[in-house]
Design a protein that fits this description.
Radius of gyration: 63 Å
Distance between the termini: 215 Å
Pfam families: FtsQ_DivIB_C, POTRA_1
InterPro entries: Cell_div_FtsQ/DivIB_C, FtsQ_DivIB, POTRA_FtsQ_type
Helix content: 40-55%
Oligomer: single chain
Order of helices and strands: HHHEHHEEEEEEHHEEEHEE
Shape: rod-shaped
Number of domains: 3
Keywords: Cell cycle, Cell division, Cell membrane, Membrane, Transmembrane, Transmembrane helix
Strand content: 15-25%
Protein name: FtsQ-type POTRA domain-containing protein
Largest sheet: 9 strands, mixed
């Protein structure tokens, strides 16, 4: 028979724990450390694979976006788009790719490769964008130049049309039938005026020198004192004349010369005209005497002038009149003739044989 073995007591450690527990703990400790090392390794490999897949997806999506962008830009070059659309598309192509910071070395390497490929594509996109902007700018400059030239052509055409209508078209051409004469008192007819300026018929009113034509009419008619011509649109002229007024008659060897207030001979007749005062002289009369008489007669009112039957003057120009009533008028020189004419008209309301207006501020009468 065997003797039953007595179990040996376990040694007691200094900290009070037994050796078996300590051994179990030591055997369990390597297993736990192994488990701890194995667990994170498995987790890291799974996370790395997910990050690699995510990075690859990002790279593929960016490459797809780059291809789409290239296609859009190629389409834009074939069909020029606005500068605003191209400027919007460029910043997207220039956006840098962000790599994953906490990944395995393989993921970082693939991200760097993707960035390099995107960078090379971005340079290509930028180059095409600058070329497109340059082309658009060139087209815009060409359009502006063309528009300026077109506006200039329009202005020239309009000015040429206006010039033709104003100067060459029959719209403003002068017609002799539309010439009017005013102020002549029937002494000057439109027909006589058209004979003088008839060469202007059919000419544009804008091209007619009215001042020159007025001088022509003035020279053509002695009885005309002054002439003013105005245009009457669209095809007529208004000739306004001031006629000379006959005031006296001078008897000469050739006949009776009718004179106006400036001593201009208006007409010569063989017989004495009625209603005009005759210039008398005891001897040969000079131009100073004639001028003094006509100036005095021209200053008189028409109602007073009709009462004068004769006039005379000294060699120094001292004038006197004979009235139809038999009374005499001492006019004197031609100082202030208008005032003397008004004073004489007032004095004629008084019956007298002599009216002295040589000093108009102190006139006298004599019965």
């Amino acid at each position: 028979m065997r003797r039953p073995q007595t179990p040996r007591p376990l040694p007691i450690n200094k900290d009070g724990s037994n050796g078996a527990a300590r051994g179990a703990a030591k055997s369990a400790q390597p297993r736990q450390s192994a488990d701890a090392n194995t667990g994170p390794a498995k987790t890291g490999s799974a996370a790395g694979s997910r990050q690699r897949e995510s990075a690859q997806q990002r790279v593929s999506s960016r490459q797809s976006e780059t291809r789409q962008r290239d296609e859009r830009q190629n389409a834009a070059r074939s069909r020029p788009a606005s500068g605003r659309r191209s400027s919007r598309s460029e910043p997207a192509s220039k956006a840098p790719s962000k790599a994953v910071t906490r990944t395995s070395s393989g993921v970082v390497a693939s991200a760097k490769v993707a960035e390099a490929s995107l960078a090379s594509t971005d340079y290509h996109v930028v180059s095409h964008g600058l070329q497109q902007r340059y082309e658009e700018q060139r087209v815009a400059n060409r359009k502006r130049s063309f528009n300026k030239l077109k506006r200039l052509v329009y202005v020239v055409v309009v000015l040429a049309l206006v010039a033709w209508v104003a100067l060459a078209s029959p719209l403003f051409a002068l017609r002799m039938s539309e010439i009017r004469v005013s102020g002549s008192g029937g002494q000057l007819s439109p027909a006589s005026v058209t004979k003088v300026i008839g060469d202007q018929e059919g000419r544009s009113l804008l091209l007619i020198d009215v001042a020159k034509q007025a001088k022509r009419v003035d020279k053509a008619f002695v009885r005309v004192r002054s002439v003013t011509i105005e245009r009457e649109w669209p095809r007529g002229l208004n000739v306004m004349v001031t006629m000379r007024v006959p005031v006296a008659v001078l008897k000469t060897a050739k006949g009776y010369q009718i004179l106006d207030g400036d001593a201009v001979v208006l007409e010569t007749r063989s017989s004495q005209p009625a209603g005009l005062a005759v210039i008398e002289s005891s001897g040969k009369i000079n131009s100073v005497q004639v001028q003094s008489i006509t100036t005095a007669m021209g200053a008189l009112d028409e109602s007073v002038r009709s009462q004068v039957v004769s006039a005379s003057a000294t060699e120094s120009g001292y004038v006197s009149f004979k009235l139809s009533s038999g009374a005499s008028v001492i006019w004197g020189d031609n100082d202030r003739p208008a005032l003397k004419a008004r004073v004489l008209k007032t004095l004629l309301s008084i019956q007298a044989s002599v009216y002295d207006v040589s000093y108009p501020l102190n006139p006298t009468t004599k019965k």
